[in-house]
Automatic annotation (TrEMBL):
Residues 29-104 form the RNA 2-O ribose methyltransferase substrate binding domain. Its EC number is 2.1.1.185. This is 23S rRNA (Guanosine-2'-O-)-methyltransferase RlmB. One of its GO terms (molecular function) is RNA methyltransferase activity. It comes from Lactococcus lactis.
Length: 252
């Protein structure tokens, strides 16, 4: 198998475009063996794999030589070429291109996390990973929430995107669907009308987490069945949104 050693190789240049949001219409990149393994377990379609020559044995051991030869398009690349496709400072020697799928929300499920205008990729990925760990049914992305297919969000999710549906929806449609399904909307806010999360007892709910600086929107407040907050006996004015989401998801 020939090793691609030029960053100007046509296949490499096309794949590198996927580091930019506007080109991620049909596929996206994942980085590292763990994410590839999670994608394969979830039955996702892998368009192609780029792997450093010294990592090919590890790849073969992970997925088997027969599958490697018959089902996957594998490209051997130099370390420099691999790094040009990676977003992290220390790439693990493997990049894969994954085909996007159309995910749907089952509104008869019990627990939903709604991320509204959450812009930091690390926060978005961490909250999705936590929702996965806490047994949530789905995550719905609203407004200007960061692109889940960006490399930084992908690293933060650590494969949780392959475990539960992640769907971007218009706020109005989302709130209407939740109300139609009889799901209680819990909006996080420090307003005078909010109550402590400790007194909430809702078997079916959608938890809305808002923007890091501005919080939730007026639409999210109006849509709420209950406004909730976390009691803070200390002197800090607020919590990091991902930390707050973790507390609420496991407690509720």
């Amino acid at each position: 198998m020939e090793i691609i050693s030029s960053k100007d190789n046509k296949k490499i240049k096309e794949a590198r475009k996927l580091l930019t949001k506007k080109y991620r219409k049909n596929s996206y990149l994942i980085e590292g063996f763990h994410l590839l393994e999670e994608a394969l377990k979830a039955g996702r379609s892998i368009k192609q794999i780029f792997v450093e020559e010294n990592k090919l044995t590890k790849l073969t051991e992970m997925i088997g030589s027969e599958k490697l030869l018959t089902d996957l398009s594998v490209n051997l690349v130099s370390k420099e070429v691999l790094k040009s496709l990676a977003d992290s400072e220390s790439p693990q020697g493997l990049i894969a291109e994954v085909t996007k799928i159309e995910e749907v929300i089952d509104f008869s499920a019990a627990k939903f996390l709604l991320l509204e205008n959450v812009q930091d990729p690390g926060n978005v990925g961490t909250m999705i990973r936590t929702a996965d760990a806490a047994g949530f049914s789905a995550v719905i992305l609203l407004g200007e929430t960061a692109d889940i297919y960006s490399p930084k969000v992908m690293r933060s999710m650590q494969g949780s995107n392959f475990h539960l549906p992640l769907v971007r929806m218009a706020k109005e449609d989302c709130f209407a669907q939740l109300k139609k399904a009889g799901i209680s909307i819990l909006t996080t806010t420090l307003s005078a009308n909010s109550v402590s999360y400790k007194i909430i007892n809702e078997p079916h709910f959608a938890l809305i987490m808002g923007n890091e600086g501005a919080g939730v929107s007026d639409e999210a407040v109006k849509a709420a069945d209950k406004l909730v907050h976390i009691d803070m006996p200390g002197q800090a004015e607020s919590l990091n949104v991902a930390v707050a989401a973790g507390i609420l998801m496991f407690s509720l």
